[in-house]
Every structure is written in C-alpha cells, then in structure tokens.
Design goal:
By secondary structure, the chain is an alpha/beta fold. The chain folds into 2 domains: about 150 residues, Rossmann fold (3-Layer(aba) Sandwich); about 140 residues, no CATH class. About 35% of the residues lie in helices and about 10% in strands. The chain has 12 helices and 11 strands. A 5-stranded parallel beta sheet has the order 2-1-3-5-4. A two-stranded antiparallel ribbon has the order 6-7. The N and C termini lie far apart (about 60 Å). Bound molecules: iron/sulfur cluster (2 copies).
Length: about 350
Amino acid sequence: MNRYRLTVVISQAQGKHPARRALEEAIVAGLLGDSRFEVSIIPHVYDLDAEHPARLFLESVRGDMVVLAWLYPRATFWVLDRDGVRGHWGETCLKPAGEHQSADTSATAPNYDGSPEGGNGSPKRASELRSPPPERFIYCLDLRDAETAEPFLAELERIYAEVSARAAQRQPLVELGLRLRQDSDTAATMNGPTAVSFHPEQLSRPPQRRWYPVIDYSRCTNCRECLNFCLFGVYSVTEDGLIYVQHQDECRKGCPACSRVCPEHAIIFPEYKSPAIAGASFGGGIEALKIDLSKLFGGADALQIAAAERDRELLAAGRQAVGMTVGIPKRQTQKPPAPKDELDQLLDQLDAANL
Ligand code: SF4
Ligand code: SF4
C-alpha cells in the first residue's frame, strides 16, 4: 500500500461568490476519500494574520504542499514565504488559457531557491543572502486557471506522482516521517508530519481583509529603494541587512506605489488589478502583459505616478505631500545590470515595439 500523503490546501475566495465556492467544493469532493491527499480548507491566504489558526496550520506542515488560491501562483508562493512557509518552487503544468503548456518545464522554472545567478560583477539577488529553504516543494495553483475541477484534479494527480517518486528516493526521510507519524496523535504525511491539527471551523474563521506588499526575493537585489520611498514605515531591514516587509498593516489600502519604484519589479500586491503588480508569471508572453508593463514600469513617468500615489495617501493620512522631493531613486546607471530574465526581455520587446 502506498502510504505517501500529500498536503493539499484550498485557500478560499474572499466574500460570498457562489461560482468560486462551487469550484472549491468540487475539488474537495473530487479528493474526498482519497487517502493519498490530506486536504484542508482555509480562508484567503493573503488575509491570514500571524495569530490565525490557518496560518499556524500552514507553518506546521513539514512536507510537500500544494496550495490552490485565487491568486497568481507567484504571489501565493511569496505570501507563504513572508509567513515563514518556505520551500522550493514546485513547477506546475496547469497554466492560464493561452499560455504555452509544456511537460518539460525545467527550462522555464524560475530561480526561487537562492542558487547563485549571474556572472562576475552582477548584483546579488536577495535570495542569496537568505538561508536556503527547507528540502520540500511548494506547488501553487491559481484557481482562476480553469472553470471546472477536472484540470485541477488531473494536475494534483501529476504532482502526486512527482512528489511520491521523489519521496521514494529519500527513503531515510520517509522512514523518519513514518516513525514520527506513529508517535503522533495528529495527522501526518509520509514525507513530513503535520505538527498541529485544527478543527475545520477553527481553520475557516473569517479573517479581516488585508493589504500589504510582498517581496519576490528571487528578483530583489536588496537595493532598499522601497525602504527609502515608503513614508509609512512598512519596510525595514533585518539584523543581517536584508530588506523585508515589517509592518504589513501600515501599508495604505489600495496603493501600489512602491511596486512602481522597485527597479527589479520584485514587489507584489497580490490583490491589485493589474497582473504585473499582482504577481502574474512572466511566462504569459508579451500579449499578456504588454499594456500592463508599459503603463506600470516601462513608461518614463512611472516614478511620477508612484509619487502622486504616495502624495494621495499622505494627504489622506493628514500629512503633507512631498512630491518628488523625498525617496525618489536616481536610477543607478553606474551599477552593472542584473542578469536579464524573461520579464526584462519582455520589457526590451516593449521598448522595441514602441508602444
Ligand atoms: S526596491 Fe525592489 S529590489 Fe530594491 S530592496 Fe526593495 S524590493 Fe528589493
Ligand atoms: S504602497 Fe505605499 S504605503 Fe504601502 S508599502 Fe508601498 S509606499 Fe509604503
């Protein structure tokens, strides 16, 4: 009997949305009674504060995990990372309609793991300054990518085959997981036990809606331009000098200003209406992002837009507008450019297309 169990987490849509709820329930129904999967339903993952039981549950999962959310997968991955739920990026095959699907995903897999990139003189990505993630994989699926449960169930089957094959190769760890499972009253997975169990009602307690930036450390170069720009005390640096979002809830609801200032497009606002700021993947091709990117980052006035957005929030908070006089980065023409990735290449195409 195959005893490997894969943790599957359904992050529910905010509010009441019958069609979305129906899809969530259809996926759960499709997994019901299948002992290979350990399924949990939680509220919208972006809204979970540090005390929410669902957050504590996520932190307690030790093994591989699939999280299905109403967010771009890249956004979900970095929201989890901010919450201390870290792992290696699990590449998925379920893509939005129109995006190229390929069984061979190795060529397009993003470098989210902190392995060195770039050559001599290239600025370091912040991921290189961090401790490596635990030896497990986190797969993120966007529930907007299909209208029925079947494609998600098929992808879960594929992921299960992948992770169970991988687990079989690390037999010592599997046996450790089994031993812990026998010692524990709580639910456990063969590739790593879940340390804490919660009643479903605890997990689904509705949280307050939140709004805060999330850093994609695979892109961030730790330049601190966001820290200098934000006048609301959201960003800080760790003792090791690494930029991070310290006071999440000090961010001004609906404002994405600092994401326009970041030279590496590393700041995600998962709920923002424009895909590039909300964390859309860079594999969607130029058609998916060209208008968005040209407006958001490619235009010469991106900094003016950001300054105006910041002024609006300063005035709303009863403070004085500062315009372009504070924290506006002087684009660093001296420094060697970061290695170009797909997003940079898309921007180059935009420039060439003269949109
Ligand atoms: S501005 Fe962007 S690249 Fe610079 S530290 Fe902030 S998130 Fe990182
Ligand atoms: S959106 Fe505005 S308030 Fe929020 S972190 Fe960015 S600059 Fe600060």
